[in-house]
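ZP: hey, is the 2-phosphoglycolic acid complex queued? I don't see it on the tracker
AM: it wasn't, my bad. submitting now with these inputs:
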Amino acid sequence: MKRTPIVAGNWKMNLLGSDVTAYAGSLAAAGPPETDLDIVLFPTPVYLAAVARAMPDWASVGAQDVHAEEKGAYTGDVAAGQARDAGAVWTLAGHSERRQYHGESNTEVARKAERALGAGLTPVVCVGETLEQRQQGETEAILDAQLAPVLAVLDAADTDTGAGGGAVLAYEPVWAIGTGLSASPEIAAAVHGHLRQALNDHCSGLGDAARILYGGSVNADNCEDLLARPDIDGFLIGGASLDPASFLRIIRLCTGSGSGPAP
Ligand code: PGA
């Protein structure tokens, strides 16, 4: 089954308003990707609406997190419906930094994914093991535990159909995030195959249709070898997405349109 690759930039708690507007301008000036590719940027919530307005129509934006409840007394949080209203069509759910610094459990992540789906957002559910868990041989068990409550909220109707529909997984080994130590294509492909099988086991065809991204120290030097693996459907990129020239370079490499430097 053909799955449109995704190249997504997770800006985390970086960049100011003037930076994100200039970034959108750089993307617009570079023009749309030469092959079928979904380009997504995840700004901090204060800039979500501005980025959604400024982005060319071939790129879309997502929230970095949404609350599991529909609305209410949750100071500082963002509802899925609000993110959608501000122009988001995607949201991350369960990024390891949310799990680590905000104590998000597997169940809460699944509730966020469910809430996002209900609000018309495509959740990009992040899963991944720590270095210690990998060294202990626990990778698959950890991933299965993270995935189980998420599977419970997904059915055939959630077969990934792109922005505004379905669900996307992102395999983000914690040991590879922000460390410069990307998973090898072999390691990533093995995990992606496992996740795809789990989706198919849960619901026939779900795994074949769903896009599974890799994240963790992706850059212009390693993206081509990773994307060459059939089970790797694109990337969630942190550090290398902060500079538009670097992000555009990765986009060009992922569309096979040259490895030259940014214009
Ligand atoms: P990184 O971050 O590319 O800086 O490793 C990836 C992520 O956390 O999504």
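AM: back. Residues 259-263 have pLDDT under 50 and may be disordered.
ZP: great, adding it to the tracker
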